[in-house]
Amino acid sequence: MTQEGTQGADDLTGFSINQMTVRQLTLPELVKGLTEQGVPGVGLWREPVATYGLTATARLVRDAGLTVTSLCRGGFFTAERPAERAAALDDNRAAIDEAATLGTDTLVLVSGGLPPGSRDLFGARERIAEALAELAPYAAERGVRLAIEPLHPMYAADRCVVSTLAQALDLAGRFPAERVGVVIDTYHLWWDDQLAAGIARAGAEGRIHCFQLADWTTPLPEGVLNGRGQLGDGAVDFRWFDRAVRAAGYTGPVEVELFNEGLWAREGIGVLAETVARYRAHTR
Amino acid sequence: MTQEGTQGADDLTGFSINQMTVRQLTLPELVKGLTEQGVPGVGLWREPVATYGLTATARLVRDAGLTVTSLCRGGFFTAERPAERAAALDDNRAAIDEAATLGTDTLVLVSGGLPPGSRDLFGARERIAEALAELAPYAAERGVRLAIEPLHPMYAADRCVVSTLAQALDLAGRFPAERVGVVIDTYHLWWDDQLAAGIARAGAEGRIHCFQLADWTTPLPEGVLNGRGQLGDGAVDFRWFDRAVRAAGYTGPVEVELFNEGLWAREGIGVLAETVARYRAHTR
To answer: Which residue intervals define the domain Xylose isomerase-like TIM barrel in the entry (chains A, B) (predicted)?
Structure first.
């Protein structure tokens, strides 16, 4: 799948870059850039895929020989009103269908925060479990696994009440491992003193469905959404993570997913090349 | 200690407001405001105390009949260089002396983040334990308890590598409970699905040395330092916290500590009155 003659491309086996990292690129620009750099995988997002067209995207990446390592994202399961819940489930079924069409077996789930005005974390978490129970069989029939992403606790109120790997595993544990697993994203999890045990457990249970890299840099920007650092710029020890997931038995792709205003303001192909270089420098 | 005739003041038994909540007030203004509102306790910070004078502050609060519920803050134990470590320990001994002079038994510790350029969370945590071992006997001789404050994980890189209550308890557990305990601050801990068990454990071990309230509001401001919400404005269920710490056997003070640019821009006595009203409305 990698380009002939790309120096050092062999060490990029299993490597993937999520399209949000270079959202300034169109899908054809992204696919061309990845193949030229020898990157064999890509993580996709529903919105830009819809803009380019679902079947057109599926054809584009397949023809380029790229592996779609994940689709972001389903989730947002915590609404209380029946109509909102029904709409969320419908949207997740659509996301599962899109994942299947794109040829990826992994749908990443951002589970949802507290409904407006609510302080009921316990209720919100139970509604996530109920939604998973409803969606997991639908996903399984289409060969898609639901990957619960524990998000950093700073997102607990407004994006995701699942905040640690152990918590995500407890939730996933209600379902078969081939149907519901977890995302290990370094940005969200690096601070946790229970992380080594959590990664070992996730591997032993066969629930590491996705492994994503981003660095933790400070100061955090207002709103704390778009400050994920380029690899090597921050506090995350990527070699530690890489060793830990491999020791836990993980052999799947490694995907870099950055949301960063500074990177988005730059020329995208240069950001791709930098990301490949940083991956080589900081994980190998 | 409360003013005669202050309506409803009885339900403020054990209530305290940290001076950072109204940092726009001088110490005499603060003390006058608290006594007029019937608030029996105050949490102090070293810098404004030093500005007013240590012995003058001690006299001021004692004469007003206020209980000093905590002194913020010691800590910052994670430096690697010997000279920096020695300076940090000296500064913490000074903080312990100041706590004793002010008549509080509780020094709050912000343990410190990663040294610049470091990614070694494990080493940083061990240096905290070493510092506690050196300081705990010194503090105990002066009747001061060291209260480890787990800070929200969004501060792990630059302020505190102790991020959960369980982690703080594991660290405190190396020392006698009357010497080293923990701070339970709603702002830092509210998101944790293991919190109920942690609070029960902290109470059973006799290690709840300080209980602080602030609400979680979004969006977070740039740098995420000064966005702690007024009680009732955010996601924290204060009644749940109050019940949990009391069920765990805690009978100590309850201190409101807000860092909020919006509150600091307002007239301070009005903020004090609002804080008392919010405390009554959201915890009782």
So the answer is: 40-274
